[in-house]
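REQUEST ID: PR-0412
SUBMITTED BY: lab tech R.K.
PRIORITY: routine
TASK: structure prediction, single protein chain
INPUT:
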Amino acid sequence: MSHPATELPPAAGSAVTADEPPAVSRWFITLYVISYLGLYLAVMTPLLVSLAIRLEDVDPAGKTRSLGLVVGLGTLVNIVSALVFGVLSDRTTARMGRRKPWILGGMPVLLAGAAVTGSGSSVSAVLVGFMVSQLGLSAIMTALQAIQPDQVPEQQRGKVAGMVGFTAQIAGVLGFQLASPLKDSGPLLFLVPAVLACLAMVPVLLFLPDRAVARPDQSGQGAATMLRSLRFNPRRHPDLGWTWAGRFLIQLSLMFLSTYQLYFLTDHLGYELDKVTGLLAISGGIGLVMTSAGAVVSGILSDRLRRRKLFIYAAAAAFAIGFVVVATASSFAQVLVGSQVILLGAGIFGAVDIALVTDVIPDKETEGAKYMSIFGIASALPQSAAPLIAPFILAIGGGDNYTLLFLVAAGIAVSGGLTVRPIRGVR
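STATUS: complete
OUTPUT:
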């Protein structure tokens, strides 16, 4: 249980029910959003640019395969550890709370992994460093995600999710801005985002409450019991299953572009690497407006209308249109237009999806971190799957078939949007 002096007052007029926590203050939301922004800086920068640049230096001939290997295995570490950390976080009884110990413990692991990744002179060294950094990120992210079902009531979930939802896009823009001057320094390319992420966690550790929930005696329960608790039955909770599938498919479509946009511009359209980082920074800067507008507006409207599905459909449509435009691009200008439509969809989806997830998970008070970790897999698994699947698609028709890759992404996005139709627990 956090010390009373660190707890924030609820917003004026907030109501407390037996099932819902009190409304959170603007101060709480501000610090929570900043923490996500910092964390996503360490998540997105390697995925969007740093690993591609590093592997271009370490293994120029096999960079595409190496990128898939590094991202794929690193994400696998993230997925497995997130499940374990989620259950352990729910069962943590430390004085500082259930979530904060995992945030604090993940920070030095993240920094160590970033240092190894940036200084590695071989694919193996980069792989080991990235896997270690993913372990640290997993501990932090698992705990941070659980704060939302722990402390944010239903009437504020769309708003909070909307503000959190576009932090990944802001972090992507900032990541390109950081990468451009740091591209010649491998260690700094990875360490600077990691350090900024850790600094963003400090206000969470110092000022945000960490609400503890009384749990039954669990003495005598060993590892086997913990592993069994990781499971969930989508037949028993079909809304969970459909929501998980939708997030996975939408994220998979987005990862095809996020992972390969740098190589698409350099290898397919013929732009020089030095120029590409600047172009992507411009695209990200414009996209920030699109993503922010989509996330904030859709999050607020979703709360007011008490509807989630409509916005998921809109997001999937934007993804599909944007991917078709990018698939047929012959210049950066066309890529820019298509990517902005995709980023608008990403903002809409990111806001409403987090609110949707929080709406459908059961046992929020006792197993919030576990279920958020399970949904975290739907976001993390595409980071592994996309780099492994994409080379096979690219190889069709003689190689570098980016047109087919992005058309496949459009179809996957549409499928992801349609998964919300069977969900009964939300409108």
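NOTES: Residues 22-212+233-418 form a domain with the Growth Hormone; Chain: A; fold (CATH 1.20.1250.20).
REVIEWED BY: pending
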